[in-house]
Specification:
Layout (H helix, E strand, L loop, with lengths): L10 H15 L3 H13 L2 H13 L24 H14 L4 E3 L3 H10 L2 H17 L1 E8 L5 E6 L4 E5 L7 E14 L2 E12 L2 E8 L2 E4 L6 E2 L3 E3 L2 E3 L7 E4 L8 H23 L5 E7 L4 H11 L4 E10 L6 H17 L15 H7 L1 H31 L11 E3 L8 H10 L6 H6 L6 H25 L10
Antiparallel strand pairs: 1-15, 2-3, 2-12, 4-5, 5-6, 6-7, 7-8, 7-9, 10-11, 13-14
Helix pairs in contact: 3-6, 4-6, 7-9
Length: 477
């Protein structure tokens, strides 16, 4: 026996210590959720989401500009570049109703009924959120009438757990949000936590760094939804993500520093212009008592008292605005270049030829190509939930139907040039193709053409009917 064996604990005591350490080191599900929530709320990604929304609302950093000298102006000029760029992309890609391509006419009608104006408006708003925050979310649920609906969850409220590095499939997610409630006659804020997993939903209240079961919400549900009081669980987690790009990077990341510089330069220049009337007076042998008397005499009598060899002069800095204007124009161009938009301030925008127009809209078109690819995948995800709903409610099995979603862009064109090209295409291609490429064409045109053709034939038939007298019919007895 070695000397250290005399001081070593018995074997069974050592094993008890090992087991105790293992038990104490195991982290519970609630602790995991707490860690994820705290990490998310302090993350740079979430801060960027909030910044993106603020810049869209034109609540920008220039508002914090300060002026050390009290008498100097402190202009805070905020320019809404972010809102203009975001609205431009949404108007370009999502303003028109999408086209759903499928060979099943009955299914196409069902899809169009489900994608009503209210839902299309919601998708448009989701697009705005995706550009502002990098990613946006829709949650499928059932309304009071038992119909499948979709609601938008603010992106900064959602903590997704992805199944893969490409962020294509969500395994589960946490939703953290605040609600107002009256407690003992006082209005208080409560932080609610909902954990959506494969088997249902858990409900908590986040208090003092701990998760407390939410008794009012029902603690936990072993289902995602009910139909006729019958519980169901989705085969997929009920969360549909819409990305601005593969990296989930918001627009504000590309333009924030440029917008801040533009606002600062414009505001500083405005300060200089606002302070121009505030001259610095140079007094030599002033004959008055104090400066107040000097200003009073100057303003009231336009006269200043001076002693022998006295004089009054004013000092004024020469304003150099040309350099500022050049910097502002340079920064503005960079904002539209890296924000991938079109500066409508360009005087030639309204008279540009087709090729020049294509070039000018190239960056916007390229950015919307990426956005369209992401949204096509997301709409396909929405259709999965719609198809399961149709199957559960006995409205048909369309789970194997292929659908191609086409977003009809609101393309800016030179109308005169387009119409001229249509005229030149007669006898080269069929009339309907020419009409479809005419800038004033829509589906109602075909109905009006049919009505017009019917009226024309009716007039021709009347003319011919009056041109020839009716034949006499002899009756042979």
């Amino acid at each position: 026996m070695m000397v250290e064996d005399l001081y070593r604990a018995p074997w069974h005591e050592q094993m008890n210590e090992v087991i105790s350490d293992m038990v104490n080191s195991v982290i519970t599900d609630d602790e995991i959720l707490i860690n994820e929530i705290q990490e998310w709320e302090n993350s740079e990604r979430r801060k960027n989401m909030i910044t993106g929304e603020l810049y869209y609302l034109n609540k920008v950093d220039i508002r914090e500009k300060k002026q050390k000298v009290k008498w100097k102006s402190n202009q805070k000029l905020a320019h809404g570049f972010a809102k203009k760029l975001v609205d431009q992309k949404i108007g370009y890609l999502l303003a028109k109703e999408p086209t759903f391509g499928t060979e099943n006419d009955a299914y196409r009608k069902i899809i169009q009924d489900n994608f009503h104006r209210g839902l299309l408006k919601k998708i448009k708003n989701v697009g705005k959120e995706a550009i502002n925050k990098g990613i946006a979310y829709l949650h499928p649920y059932f309304n009071e009438e038992g119909e499948l609906s979709f609601t938008k969850f603010p992106s900064e409220q959602i903590i997704p757990f992805w199944a893969d590095n490409e962020h294509l499939e969500v395994l589960s997610f946490i939703r953290v949000y605040e609600v107002s409630a009256y407690m003992n006659g006082k209005k208080e804020q409560h932080k609610k936590v909902e954990y959506y997993h494969a088997k249902g939903i858990r409900y908590y209240i986040f208090e003092g760094g701990k998760l407390v079961p939410d008794n009012l919400a029902g603690l936990e549900k072993n289902h995602h939804f009910t139909i006729n009081d019958k519980p169901y669980v989705w085969d997929r987690i009920p969360l549909i993500h819409f990305k601005y790009n593969e990296e989930e990077q918001p627009l504000v990341d590309s333009i924030k520093s440029l917008v801040d510089n533009y606002n600062l330069q414009a505001s500083t220049n405005a300060d200089i212009l606002a302070d121009v009337p505030k001259f610095i007076y140079k007094l030599i042998n002033y004959g008055g008592v104090d400066l107040a008397e000097f200003l009073s005499d100057l303003n009231e009598y336009m006269v200043v008292k001076v002693d022998e060899n006295g004089d009054v002069d004013k000092l004024q800095a020469e304003i150099q605005t040309e350099a500022v204007e050049k910097d502002l124009n340079r920064t503005r161009n960079s904002i539209y270049e890296f924000g991938r938009g079109v500066d409508m301030k360009d005087e030639e925008s309204g008279i540009a030829s087709g090729k020049a127009m294509d070039h000018r809209y190239g960056d916007l078109d390229m950015d919307c190509n990426v956005l369209e690819a992401e949204f096509q995948s997301s709409v396909e995800h929405m259709l999965w939930f719609i198809n399961r709903y149709l199957l559960m409610t006995g409205k048909g099995d369309f789970t194997n139907e292929d659908v191609n979603t086409i977003f009809n862009r609101d393309i800016i064109i030179n109308e005169t040039e387009a119409i001229d090209n249509c005229v030149k295409s007669f006898t080269v291609i069929d009339d309907q193709t020419i009409r479809e490429n005419h800038p004033w064409y829509n589906e109602e045109v075909e109905n009006r053409l049919k009505k017009q053709e019917a009226e024309r034939r009716e007039e021709i038939e009347k003319e011919y009917a009056n041109a020839f007298p009716p034949k006499e019919v002899k009756v042979v007895g």
